[in-house]
Every structure is written in C-alpha cells, then in structure tokens.
Amino acid sequence: MHFESSGFVNMHWKRAPFVRVAIPLMAGICLQSYLSLSFTLIMILILFAAGGLLLCRQLPVQWRYAAIPVRGLLLLVLVTACGCLLIYKADLRRERSFWEKQAADSSWLLLEVNAPPVLKERTCRAVATINAVCNKGRWIPVKGYLQLYLTREDSLPDLAYGQQIITRKKPVLIKNNGNPGAFDYQQYCAGQQIYQQLHLVHRDYYLLPQEGGNPIDRWLISARDYCLGSLKVFIGKGPESGMAEALLIGYRQDLDKDVVQSYGNTGIVHIIAISGMHLALLYSTLLWMLKWLPAGRWANFTKAILVLGVLWGFALLTGASASVLRSAVMFTGITTGRLILERYSSTYNTLAASAVLLLWFNPYLITDAGFQLSYLAVLGILLFYQPLYRCWQPERKWVDLLWQMVALSLAAQLVTTPVSLFYFHQFPVYFLPANLVAVPLSTVAIYGEILLLLVAPLGMFASWVGKGLQLLIMIMNSSVKWLGDLPGALIKDIHCSLSQAALLYLFITGAALLFMIRWRPGLWLVLISCWGYLVLRAGWETRCRQQRLMVIYNVTGYTAIDCINGRKARFTGQDTIFRQAAGAQIVATRQYLGVEPGAVMGFNQYGRYISFWGKQLVIIDSILPTGRMSSRFRVDYVFLNNNPHVNIPAIMTCYDSHCIVAGAANSRKRIQQWKEECHAAGINFYSIPEQGALVVRCRPAGPE
Questions:
Q1: Residue 12 CB partners (closer than 8 Å, separation 6+)
Q2: How many other CB atoms are found less than 10 A from the CB of residue 588?
Q3: What does DSSP assign to residue 158?
Q4: d(Cα 634, Cα 648) in Å, to the nearest integer?
Q5: Pair 451, 511: CB distance under 8 Å
Q6: How many Cβ atoms are within 10 Å of 2's Cβ, its own excluded?
Q7: Is the pTM here over 0.70, yes or no?
Q8: Please, how many CA atoms are within 13 Å of residue 287, restricted to the half-sphere of its CB?
C-alpha cells in the first residue's frame, strides 16, 4: 500500500496547520500540570523562542534554508510554552479576586447555585459560585466555586438553579481519601476550578428571596424539564424511562444501576452518555431536512445559522460535556467552511482545530477522560476505518452495511483501548456484538424520542409512540444484559500504568506503520514496545509479590482494614461494606496493589486485636476492657472508630502505644477532642478523615 493512499495520510501537513499546533500545545499543558513551572521561566521561554524566530527572518536568504530546523524547534518551544502559560493563567487561585484572598474566618459568603442540583435521599449536592464576601459590613466582589452539600429536610424547599445563599460557615479543602489507587477526586474537582467544599444544615445559611442565574440557562433548564416530564408521562417511570432520558439529553440521575453495569460490562457506556454520535445524528438529520432550500450564498448562510443554532442549543441542553463540545466545535468548523466560506479542509485539521479552541478556552479539559476518549475514538476512525473496511468487500448490501459498522467499532476500540485500560482496568470481550445491537437500536430510539416530543400535545398518538419506545428500549436493555452476563464477558483487574499505556500506543503506531505503509522500522517500534511492556509488567509483579502492608481505609461509616501479604489480602471489618458503594474503594485499592481475598501468612486475630508481621493493632469501637490489668498491653496502633465513649488517658492506662488512629466513622468533634488529648500527652495522633488512609509497611516479604 502506498503512503499516499493510506489512512495516515490523506492529511497533508501544509494543509493542516492546527495539527502542528495542537500536539506541542497539549504537551505544554501536560508539562505545566506536572512540573508547575514559574511564570518567569515560562515568559523567558516565550521571549527566547519569539526573539529567535524574528532573528531567523532577518537572516540572509542563503542562510534561511539551513535555519529551517532551528525555526521549527523554536516554534515548537513557543507553542509548548504557550500551553504552559494557558494552564498557569487558568488557575483562579492566582487571581487577586479569588475569594480566599479576600475572606477572613468570620466573613459572610454570598453563594449562587450555578447548575441544577443533584438530589439524593438525604442530601442535595450542587456547584455554587462565590459572588462576594462580606468583611466588616463591606461586600467585596470575588471569584470562585464551591462544592455545596445541604442536608435535605421535609420542612425546607430544595435548592434550585439561581438560588442565592448567605452563610458564615468556612469551607474546607477538598481532599482525596488517601486509599491507594483510589480515584483522584481532588484533581477531578481542580479541573473544574473547585478547590473547597461546604457542608450545610438549615441553621448554617439564609436563602435570599431574589434569584440569580442566566436567562438562557433558565430557558435550557425549562426545556430539559419539559423533555424529562414528557418522557416520564408517555414511557413511564421504570428503567426504560431512565434510559430514554440518558439517550436524549444525557440526564443520568434516573438510570437503573443494574442497567448501567450491563452497559459497562459490554463496553458501550458511550451509548448512554451524550457523545459525538448524538450530534452526528442530529447534524445529518438537519442537513437532510434542509435539502429543500435552493442552492445559493444566502440559502447556505441561512442553512448554516439554523444548523449551528440547533447544534449548540442541543449541546448546552445536555450539559456541554467534553465529547459534545468536541463534536459541536468540529461540526461548527465543517459547516462554516462548507456552507459559508465554501471551502473544504482536512478532517484532521478540523479535529485539531477543535481541540486547540477548547483547550484555549479551558486547558483543564485535557485531564477529562471523556475528552481524551472522544478525540481518540474519532482519530482511530479517521486513521483505521478505511484500511479495515477495504480488507473485505462484501457483495450484498446488508452485509456491506454490517461490515461498515464492524470496521467502525474496531477502529474506535483499537485507539481507545490503552486509555480505557489505564482508567478502568478492564476489557469488554463482547464489545463488538454489543455495538452491533445497541448502536442501531439506540439510533432508532433517539429519533423516536424526538418524534415523541413533537407529538406530545396530541395525547393518544404520543402514548402509542411512548409504548413503542418503551418496548424498543426494553429489548435493547435485555439484549445488552444477556451479552454482559455471558461467561467471560469482562476481563477485570487489568493492571495498566501510564507508562504501559504509552507503550501500548507505541505498539499500535509501529504495527500500523509496518502493515499499512510497509515502513520496516515500524517492526523495531513493535519489538521495543513489547520488551518495555514486559519489563514494566515483571517489575510490577515482583513488587506485588514482595509487599506486606496493613491498610486502614478511609471509608465513612465503616471499619475496613486489609492485611496484605504478596498477592493475598485478609479483610477485617464490616463485610456489609461490599454491598454498598463504599466497597468499590476497597476493590479499587486491591486492583491497584494486585491482590485478591485469601489466606494470609503471618496474620493473627484475637477478637479486636490484630498481629501482622511484627505490627500490632487493637480496634476500639465500643468501650474499653473492664477489670483490672496487671500491666499495659503493648501495641503499635490503637484504632478508634464508631465514636467510642473513651478518652486518651483512659486508653493509655490499658495500652502502651506510640500512635492513636482515628477512623472515618467518628464525628469531627470527637476526633478534635482526641487530637488535643494526644497533643497534651505527647502521643502521635493520626486522623484518617484529615490525612487519608493509613498504610503501614511491615517487614518486607522474602521470595516465596
């Protein structure tokens, strides 16, 4: 296969300037995220690169050609430094108007709910904007965001979008739970410029009568509520209605957990998350509906305005997730070029341009898994769909259509697999048949839901459409569940570090270059990536077999301790945790450490006393032992949990320990009391809610 006819390449670099900009820009954003370069150093790099480029333009003509590599390197440094500057300036904490720089401990805060709250059984969660702080009777405008949690009470109304609140309670920093390998919630919130959280009960705040908010947002919320209400009326309130809401506008609060698990087991969660597929369907439908407009400049301009208005309205209605924004920006570029400017550009260039624009607007998007998977899926389709499709040319039309869907799914899955393994550590075996079933059925369902909204005022006809949609979605859910329940449907606990994911991409690149354009050095890339992956895997396996850890988890409301020896873990605590959502944190830690439940050597337990390879721990979750003790019992750690009515002096009369550990099932008031008593007695104190999970390294394991 010649280079000009391969999928790599229908892109010409001279016609794709944004591709050359996007790669170093993303590299600069990643560099600044991990290294946090100073503003001075970033500006020095920018001035140095810009000055070098200006100097190259002043060189004599005979030297300019020789200086082309230098100019390319300087341009690379300039764009990379601009990426560093983007994320440096995006951090609200560096601005003078950031609320923490203006607030004192006794300041009043004026908050405004800037998105529809998520209502749970006992709490209401919302993101709030900090509009102003009050110091000594003077209100100062500020910037900032908070994660807001309110206790729900029957006598009080729930929060709504635009609701304004005044409170004097001081927010606290968002921290990770410290459980090894757990989801980095702190980094996730930081990507949305949220660094603090606030827990309020009814006596902590005052609701203002006036409401804020953007009129456009209010209209979008009203439109969303109309869609949700119509779907519930005509489809019902079962799992089919929840799926319909997710398919149409990305509303996932009513999704059935078992249904979500089935879609996750088959690798088609993208079906129930508003993505580029939905905008592509909407875009093609709009173009088909506007075919009746005559050809001409003004007709094309009108067509472009209508298409872009509907696309962006839909994107905002569904919450403007990263994948939806990517599609909206891409289709905006395509529509503008074809209908307004009457110019056709490289699809690669349009894809890269959309990434540059989104990252310029919000550089933190680069850490969003949806952003990464969305762009990688489109890139995989652009690179590998045509080569895969050309491997077989079926004669029958329906077989050809089926093969197109297979090639499309394989192309997207090929490029997204390393990132999926890095984030989720599992691989869905039956992703291909699941896509072949769910994609066409969900497409019909989406068009059917749009029809339902149009005919909702007609009553009887709308009820017929709703019953048909309910049956269709039930068939789709049942089919996906059947596939997800098949033996071996999901390969779990796949360890894949960031470096291993990078090596997998090197393997894919080398194999593609070798087989698609016959570039023989691609074989070396394949061999190097395989060797590197095996070395990293062997190193990880060795570390797992030699580890000996005692992990006291940071899990609210539970006692949870793992004693880990090599690849086995012995659990101590409340087994009911594994039937709750909190159990997923322990499962994630075990996946990260490469262990599974089983018998553990060196572990002994006598009631609430645990001995594990030279470390002793006693659990106190009720009262101290009664009776007179001849001597204090020697232990390394005393673990207090579930608010036992004890004090530190009483504990020290029974136990000789160098560290008191307070678990996450204690109240803040009780933890503060123990902390002060330990400080007065000169004893080490470890607060799991404040400092994260406690990981104790025991004597290292020898060879098995």
A1: 346
A2: 16
A3: P
A4: 15
A5: no
A6: 8
A7: yes
A8: 10
Q: Cα separation of 510 and 551, whole Å?
A: 41
CA distances to 51, 576, 591, 612 from 583, in Å: 56, 8, 13, 23
DSSP 251: -
- Reported as a single tens digit per residue, the pLDDT across 3-61 is 333 444 444 445 567 788 888 999 999 999 888 889 999 999 999 999 988 888 887 87
Distances (CA, A) of 462 to 57, 236, 254, 448, 574: 68, 13, 22, 10, 50
Angle between helix 322-335 and 347-361 (nearest 10)? 130
The amino acid that residue 430 corresponds to is Y
* H or E segment and range at residue 572: strand 568-573
Q: Which residues contact 145 (CB under 8 A, 6 or more apart)?
A: 92, 114, 127, 128, 129, 130, 192, 193, 194, 195
- φ, ψ (nearest 5 deg) of residue 634: -85, 120
Of 189, 270, 184, the C-alpha closest to 498 is 184
Q: Using alpha carbons only, what angle is made at residue 354 by residues 348 and 359, rounded to the nearest 5 degrees?
A: 125
Contact in structure between 537 and 546 (CB atoms under 8 Å): no
Q: Give the C-alpha separation, 548 to 419, whole Å.
A: 30
Output the six-digit token pair for 601: 């050597």
Q: Identify which of 130, 314, 296 has the alpha carbon closest to the alpha carbon of residue 220.
A: 314
Query: Which residues sit opposite 696 in a β-bridge?
Result: 550
Q: How far is CA 428 from CA 197, 417, 421, 487, 507, in A?
A: 36, 10, 10, 12, 20
CB count within 10 Å of CB 133 equals 21
Following DSSP, what letter does each residue of 177-228 receive, concatenated?
Answer: ---TT---HHHHHHTTT--EEEEE-GGGEEEEEEE---HHHHHHHHHHHHHH
Question: Which residues lie closer than 8 Å to 514 by C-beta, 6 or more apart?
Answer: 520, 522, 523, 526
Kindly report the length of the chain: 704
Q: What are the DSSP calls for 37-80, one per residue?
A: --HHHHHHHHHHHHHHHHHHHTS-HHHHTTTHHHHHHHHHHHHH
For tokens 């933890």, what's the residue?
Answer: 671
Note the pLDDT tens digit of each residue in 555-594.
988 899 999 999 999 999 888 888 887 888 898 899 889 8
251 in Cβ contact with 245 (< 8 Å): yes
